[in-house]
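[step 3/7] fold_predict: job queued, chain A
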Amino acid sequence: MAAGLVAVVAVAAIASSGAGIAGWTTSHDGNEGNARHGWKGKLNEMMERNRIMRKMMERNNMMKAGRHIMRNLLNLDRIEGNLSYIDGTYYVDDTPVYFGDEWFLEHVIRSDYDGDGDYETIADEINGLMGNDVVINGMYGNGTLIASHINGMWLRVPVMAEFVELNGVIEKINGTYYIDGYRIVLPNKQARSDYDGDGLLERMRMEIDGLVGENVNIDGYTHNGNLRPLHINGIAI
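[step 4/7] structure written:
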């Protein structure tokens, strides 16, 4: 009788112990699942932070490189000589010089390059230097000096860029804006005007977001398939 009672008690204890182990195992697995989920979440968060940091570092490096280039433009190509204009081309002695396209020359005012006390268009300033000795800095391209400075005064980034006037629909593809096949390069800044007409002044990208799918007029300079807009629907950037 006592032996039977002992056996029953032993079986009950084992069953109770098994239930406890099963419960512990279930609880342990649940906690492990939660821990794994939390670990993955933290890993994703860390990866996203690293991605943002890399983007910021890339942008800072590009800005530093740009500043380095700007500081050293005077140390690039340089010519000195008499300025002339022959058959639609500017020359310093025998070297053809590119100061900019027609729109740039006729519409932009920079500095008093000819020293007459008046701020005039680039074309008028250059005409005021005609027949005089000048110092032109810039970069050579296909035998032409693309000017960056006139007599040490800043003029423009020395690249061959074309002014265009476009009318078309703005598209957004993978986060990038396009019009008529040109990639629109926007300044990373707060907009100065309400380009999309929603009554708010937003970041430039948000303003352009409001114009996606709309037909707009854009003018600006193109280089290597990129468009740097000067005006959108007649509103200056």
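[step 5/7] annotate
The chain has three domains: 1-73, 76-154, 162-236.
The longest strand covers residues 77-86.
exit 0
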